[in-house]
Write a structure and sequence with these properties.
Its EC number is 2.7.13.3. The chain crosses the membrane at residues 21-40, 175-194. By secondary structure, the chain is an alpha+beta fold. The chain contains 10 helices and 12 strands. The protein has helices spanning 19-67, 76-86, 123-136, 162-214, 231-285, 290-317, 331-341, 366-387, 420-424, 441-452, and strands spanning 90-95, 98-103, 113-117, 141-147, 154-160, 327-330, 351-354, 361-364, 395-402, 406-413, 456-459, 466-473. The strands form 3 sheets. Strands 2-1-5-4-3 form a 5-stranded mixed sheet.
Length: 479
Amino acid sequence: MRARPQVLTNVLPGRFRGLSVKLIAMIVVVILGAGIAIYVPSIANFRLNWLDDRLRVGVVAARVLDAVPDVMSLPRSLTDRLLTAAGADAIVYRREGQSQLIELADAPTPREAVTADMRQRDPLTVIVGAFDTMLSGGGRTLRIVGSGDADESLVELLMLERPLYVEMLAYSRNILILSFVIAGITAFVLYVFVSQLFIRPVERLTQNILAFRQAPEDGTLIITPTSRRDEIGILERELAAMEAEIYSMLRQRRHLADLGLAVAKINHDLRNTLTSAQLLSDQVVALDDPKIQRLAPRLVNTLDKAIGFAQSVLDYGRESATPPQPRPVDLHALVEDAAFDAGLAGHPSVVFANEVPADLHVNVDAGQMTRVLVNLVKNAREALEAAGSRVPAPAIAVTAGETGEGVTISVSDNGPGLPPRARANLFVAFEGSARAGGTGLGLAIARELTEGHGGRLILADVPTGTRFDILLPASALVR
């Protein structure tokens, strides 16, 4: 039986949605973010240095003013050169309560003024001043105030803010271009490195998983791991091992399915043949020949075992994989029905005791749980019948009660117990039978059905007899 190709619900992402694009975008964003973090103090420092340069020229001009007794006697050409060198429209020098002023002959009309006090150099003031200049557009008059060389002297420069604004704008543009260049180069280098080291291997793994999922029976799709020793290498080797196991299991499942169909057909024909043979044996039993009368019971018994074996195999092959549909069930009544189906009603020698509390209700699939109990009780009955006189008072008891983890249902008997061979393969189909001619399917089916309810079926360790415990989770308890 071949696995049906599955429709892929996941496909590889497009060119602009893969890991590589996300990686490049993340690198660019991180570098630009770092550039912004560097730009803020650098633009503030650029403005501060620019103002310091202008202030130093203003201080030199103030020295000239301080050396001349009468500022008005200075030639206009000299004062204009001093102002032009400082880039100022006017310079004011204050000392000991006196002020001296020089200004350009054709000084522009004063505009809205903004003061840059160079005596305040804390980072917040410097950064706020830089962004204030950038956002102003450069249309104001800039008043630069700073200390002169002499004690308590003060120098003020009045100039247009436009030159500072233009130079800061050019500096910002250069920083932005440089940031993009660095981000692009770094992103490309990191992309090449990370792509070879991580992204390409991940894409290879992703493509292999998608392809293998679509055709898991194609052995050529099993990934060939590389010699890497890191996490990617471990992932490749584990994926290769997992795909090899899936490939083997699918082949085995197909072989078992084909074999199961063949066995089912053989058993069906064999059961019909054995039924016909049983009918003939019934007619033979009616003959008066003493030899036939002595051999006929053995023949009938052998045919019954063969028919039972064939029927068990057919039942196991038809075992439904339908999930249980739990409903509140009266466990006491469920055990009574199971005992009746197991052939204990009116049994001549085996005493059955239903010790389940009458008010105990569980949330289980009634049909499946009945089958579990029937298999366990029937196995106990057959063990007691096979023991014969070795058990003087054969008895079977079913008990149940709440535990800290949920509900425990116990099926026990006082028979001779299970032989070592049966214990070794207790829940293995066709191997776990405790009696000759048995198939061992009853316990295998009971365990599967119990696990389908989220529980466990275990063999309890008791000094005499045999006891099986059905351990159901707390969700099975109806309160």
